[in-house]
Amino acid sequence: MALLGLHEKIVDLVKYADIVFWPAATDFKYEDLKGYTEDEIDITFFNGGIRTSENEELANLLRKKSKILVAYGSCAAQGGIPGLANLSSRKQLFDTVYVNNATTDNPDKTVPLEVTKKNNRKLTLPELEESVRSLNQVVKVDYLIPGCPPPPELTSDFLELLINDELPEKDAVIAGKKTICDECPREWQGKSIDKINRPHDTEIDPDMCLLDQGIICMGPATRSGCGAACPEKNQPCKGCFGPPENVNDQGTEMLNSLASVLQIGEEGTALEQEWNTLNNLPDPVGSFYTYSLPTSIFGGRVEDEDNHE
Amino acid sequence: MTSRPRVGVFVCHCGENIAGSVDVERLAEDVLALDSVVFGTNYEYMCSDPGQNTIKDAITDEDLNGVVVAACSPSMHEETFREVVEEAGLNRFRCEIANIREQCSWVHRGNGYKPTEKALKIIKGAVEKVKRNLPLEPVEMDHSNKCLVIGGGISGIQAALDVAEAGKEVILVEKEPTIGGHMAQLSETFPTLDCSQCILTPKMVQVDRHPNIELMVYSEVKNVSGFIGNYKVTIEKKPTYVDPDACNLCGDCVEVCPVEVEDEFNEGLSTRKAIHIPFSQAIPSSYTLDEDACLGLNPLCCTECSAACDADAVNYDQQPEFVEEEVGAIIVATGYDLYEIANMGEYGAGKYENVIDGLQFERMLSATGPTRGEIRRPSDGKVPKDIVFIQCSGSRDPENHNSYCSKICCMYTAKHALLYKESVPDGNAYVFYIDIRAGGKEYEEFVQKVQEEERVLYLKGKVSKLEEIEGKIQVQGVDQTIGEKVEIDADLVVLAQSIVPSREAEETSKQLNLNLGPNGFYKEAHPKLRPVESLGGGVFFAGAGQAPKDIPDSVSQGSGAAAKAIDLLAQPTLSHDPQVAEIDDEHCSGCGLCIGQCPYGALELNQRDVAEVNEILCEGCGTCVSGCPSNSLSLKNLTDEQVNNMVKAYVGD
Amino acid sequence: MDFEPKLVGFLCKWCSSAGADLAGVSRRQYPSNLIPVTVNCSGRIDANFIMEAFKDGADGLLISGCHPGDCHYTSGNYKTWRRVALVKHVLKQFGLNPDRVRLEWISATEGDKFASVVEDFTNEIRELGPGPFNNE
Questions:
Q1: In 3-state terms, what secondary structure has residue B33?
Q2: Does the structure's ipTM exceed the value 0.90?
């Protein structure tokens, strides 16, 4: 969909290349895809994470058939918001969605099956894999264009490089090298905060750094390239561009920084209160790993003795 | 590091200390299986000459570019071995110590093969670190040649004189209007019974006259910033309202001053005027107007002292002065106070006039004191015929007061008892004690003399309670040797109150970033081997602020601290540990989150809106490094990569 | 085979590692499961180290620094306190028992405390069982 954000520039793309596979916009089939020879496709933009066996199959297929594979968008690059499902096991997910929720009446606890036989016919559904993965956790990816969605400017910049044969070396992330703070116009005052505010808790000063106002802005731990789009519109960055270049785990980086700026009263005089404040943060994983849980160090839920399933 | 790592591992037996529970020979072989290790050996005492030569030879013969010495704690010999590798041509940081003694062999004895297993992992971690250590050179920096001495008691005076004699400039800051400290309040000193002021004042005059000493009295250190060799100090000089050069000590001002307040030099046993001199040999030789006691200076209420002064020395227009100084070394000699009698609920909590402390008794004994050297009861001025001295008051009492021994009380109590008997030969002196601590030179003989010759009754036992009954102080004690209760109706009771750090110690410790021990005394770098140095370097201790001590020890320590300060100031340049933070400015986005985390102010945003590290201010703690959300800060020789590889070495398969 | 916990201790050089040394000098015995990584200041502890350590197979982590107010570098340990609070909260959400991370203040004079803490912690982790990434 983000490609449509290119508006009229899409015409340039069409001039340059034949679009040979675009499920969202055109009517091509998997059979067409399987029919291509290896590396026949010059470039594939793949968006979405890998959640089902179908996704995985497609990823492998497209890798085989494409000279260049681009992980397009947050889900393909880091797993995206659906990646937060990794906090639950597959069984827990099925349980919540199909059986144990307030608006579902399912006394037989029927859940979708991969294979259903009825009237001598066999119906198959793709397997929901145990966890969400990013594209590059499944196949080798050549370029990452991050963002939820990738900003049109970034896409059209990449397309220009492509059209002019000026692509950077493979393995590059097509975005900035710094963090959102580099692009953010807000004024930073280096305050220490004594309370964490959710955006609706407080009147947001449009000129002051959001962290200074006690609002968790993922900007410092997020790769630059979007022009600080959200902070400019008076909303905190949520981290959709993924971690900065030298960071492998976006959540811990943000956690470290937040712990450094939170301070109640004179340094060291209210440690217990600070401990409680930090422990009162609802859903820290949801806040710090919104888009990047699958590619974080843990990747998702871990099995410990007392939560064994 | 472009060449492949070639690390040699040297396992020390340390006699049986390590070899007793770690299979050192097996270890020296097993290390060869570790990544990057090309040489392994073991020896009885690696720190010995032959041991050191083993390392040097191996570096040359085996072309080593990294060394791990598996031995005792780095606090013992890291410096030794780093010098050894330097002599062999390797950078000092290419040598790491694996602590397999204090943190392994000594604590896992009789545990079969486990200590050896653990030692191998510790070594593995050290190898992973050393092979990534950068060969850094120390950062050289200039330093100030001045020394600051905080506190003008006997130890501060000694320190100041020694540093000044070495040709360095000294600034001596003292909060009172005169130097001399508590020693100036004493009558005689044990065991020689020298007149305290007689032996002290020549030193005080020396300080006053010394061309290299700038004396600032009635002054306090307000702020210290900077670091070893380059401290910036702000000192507040309070106005005395008297010009010390003009004042001729005639004392006419005192006659006309209408205000009387408690005389702190006489420990509250008498009063003084608002304009006063603590004692006649005060240095600087000048009167001082206490503005808090004065009727008022703004607006001027009374101008009697100025009118009476023929020397025209009184100047009501004096203002506080804030002085900024740069110094290279600081000696802290803030001294002691006595634990207040108000804390002794069992002894009247300060309600009883005739229960006094040792310093008050000293003032009474002093010929220039409030009673002209005569021992008198504060309540009615009568000569006490029965006097009780209670040792360990507030000391050696972890449940109620202080747990430690105050070291000097046994000696001064014996002295007090002796001097009392000289003054009141027909009086009765009783000393309640728990033990007698007379360890100094000729101290034991002194106490013996007091006990035997002077007919002072020493009672081994504690006093549970003091109560004032009809003008006398009823002392309820115990004599343990006969196992019976003792009750004495005393005319005067002298409590040997616990020595506590002076009230300035806490503020000073904050200003200088010093650690205080559990009792509030300054914490030295090592209690046995480095008693005059602070951990941070650049700040040294002298006197009772570090621990209770007598005059000879205070003087020794003053000289010791001075020697350390002179040591530092004599270096042409100082070298700063180069293992500091560094910025990857390609990735730093100037978010600024690191700036406030640095306790030394070593980080700032430069004009390119990227953070910058001041390598001289940075102390290498790494707090900013872990707090950087984009991993643009790293700590040289303790990078994330190094730490993670050490952890992998420990828990990996 | 009985489970033997693999523990890592992040000790600050000026206080906790010196305390551990003192335990050694005092010959105070304790289990050998914990292997120390000495850092200059507990403030150097990155929440990242904690996650990586568990990922590498650690069963428990001890983080130890100077007592609040006594940090050799003034304030590093305050940051540690807050970071550990947050990381425990996060670990819990990930399903990892936050008791596997223990924060202690151990000074250079507390050799006994160091030994007791290690012993206690080792036993605690032995009860909890292997960490989530311990494949043995």
A1: helix
A2: yes
